[in-house]
Amino acid sequence: MSAPRVTKAVIPAAGLGTRFLPATKSQPKEMLPVVDRPAIQYVVEEAVAAGLTDVLVITGRGKRAIEDHFDRNFELEHTLEEQGKHDVVEELRSTTEVGHIHYIRQGEPKGLGHAISVASEHVGDHSFAVLLGDDIMVDDAHLLGQMLDVHERKGASVLALMEVPPDQISAYGCVDAEVVGDGLLRVRGIVEKPDPADAPSNLAVIGRYVLTPEIFGAIARTAPGVNGEIQITDAIGLLLESQPVFGVSFTEGRYDIGQKLDFLRANVEIALDRPDLGPELAAILVDIVRRRGLV
């Protein structure tokens, strides 16, 4: 069963960012800079590049900086214009023209499932994509585009799946799935953060989803778990009882900027790929490694 092309994206960005304290005490974790752009800008640009022109950001207390970032700053633009920095002005303006961005507050952090449920009125009876605000993909929207294509062909929800070391699966949602095509899997079961000994596989659900509107009914029927949070994984498990769910596997391009080492890796690798920074940064890294006797 085919489905219309998805045009709506939901970006949950209401989390507290406790893994990055004290840096996130007074600024959203999604605004942590990856080279010279905040992480959430990468996420929004990915959504727009995949054809998702209607973007809803789920925010919370202390997240106003996200809204300000995607808004015009006329005073700053005027100052830069007077200084002749026209290229910088154009770059600033481009952040306000990436798509139609809307905002709504979650109210209180009650889990990813609850955050997604807040989008129900905005989404309505349409399928939609979910992109986690602290997971960035540097792949020219290739993965998300594949997921949207699968949804269009199958008319079903689609999850991004990645193999992780077995001892790390307890940090993720995990699926039991069968291969039905090149990189395409049909999900048979899903569990949240299983003990490695009990995990049905080492396929982890990673921060990209394409969901049918029936997910909202499943979330409403999902009982709160640890810390009173409503997990989207549990809701997807309920959704499986009435409709198929597929997965698209991938291997690279993803950074979890909520993890300190991955945040550092993202900054280094993305900067190395830039012609204005890469050559000099590479020389600096080589010098550091040599001076510290790491090679």
Name some characteristics of this structure:
alpha/beta, 5-stranded mixed beta barrel, 11 helices, 13 strands, two-stranded antiparallel sheet, 295 residues, globular
Layout of strands and helices, then pairs:
Blueprint: E1 8-12, E2 33-34, E3 37-38, H1 39-49, E4 54-59, H2 64-69, H3 74-82, H4 86-94, E5 100-105, H5 112-117, H6 120-123, E6 128-131, E7 135-137, H7 142-154, E8 157-163, E9 173-181, E10 184-192, E11 203-211, H8 215-220, H9 232-239, E12 245-249, E13 254-256, H10 260-272, H11 278-291
Parallel strand pairs: 1-4, 1-6, 4-5, 8-12
Antiparallel strand pairs: 2-3, 6-11, 7-13, 8-11, 9-10, 9-11, 10-12
Helix pairs in contact: 10-11
Strand order of the largest sheet: 8-11-9-10-12
- The total count of helices amounts to 11
Q: Outline the biggest β-sheet.
A: 5 strands, mixed, barrel
The structural class is alpha/beta
Beta-strand percentage range: 15-25%
Low-confidence segments, ≥5 residues, pLDDT <50? none
Helix content: 25-40%
| Mean pLDDT value | 90
Q: Gyration radius, to the nearest Å?
A: 20 Å
Number of strands: 13
Q: What best-fitting shape do the alpha-carbon axes yield?
A: globular
Give, in order, the helices and strands: EEEHEHHHEHHEEHEEEEHHEEHH
Through-space gap between termini = 56 Å
In short:
This protein is of the alpha/beta class. 34% of the residues lie in helices and 24% in strands.
